[in-house]
Amino acid sequence: MVVLANSRKCGGYCLAGKTLDAAGYVGAWVRPVTEVDTDGLPLRRTVCSDGRQAAVLDVVTLEWGRPAPSLHQRENRLMGPAVLERCGRASWDDLPLLADKASSGLWLDGHSSHGGFNDRVPANRLSDLPGSLLLIAVCELVLYRKSGYEGQMKYRADFRIGQRRYNLALTDTVATFWLLTVQSLALASAYVCVSLAVPFRDGFAYKLATAVITRERAGSTK
User: Fold this and answer.
1) Full-prediction pTM beyond 0.90?
2) End residue of a domain, out of 62, 94, 126
3) In Å, what is the CA distance from 57 to each residue of 175, 181, 204, 217?
């Protein structure tokens, strides 16, 4: 699997990526899950045998179990007990082969939260969707932080796909680290991995920017 997202999820982490065969052919999206860690994977399940956490664009091998789809998250698949093994790394030049098309938008548009734009899908529409993960080339990307409820810091990603604008919650731990010393950051060229979360108690499933991949990040191991 080539890792295309490693983001925070409740008390744990969410890994996601696309399968690769022995010849390097790009396959389907997959999201490793376990039967017991319902609020995300614990840190130890995201760490490779070399002691470092799997990073975006790392190629890792892992033991797969049975498919475990949940609502629209059809990509979920149980991971076995074996430790992740890092066996390579994708490059910036590989991203056009890994990216998806979103000419009609991110699943279903037209529903916005108070602080976002085109950032959620009604729960009663989720069964119509083919999946919950996309990797998209975006333009006019701006990452920023703002103070939320009771002073809790919120991180957002604002971007366009063609003529469609989106403003999503940013859960990528690396991208939020970029915002520690600046209020906002404009990026000229980037790919964004978007995940559609499980429904929230308000009756909507939210679109999350789970990875922001720049040329500079693609050249590093973090």
Assistant:
1) yes
2) 94
3) 14, 25, 30, 9
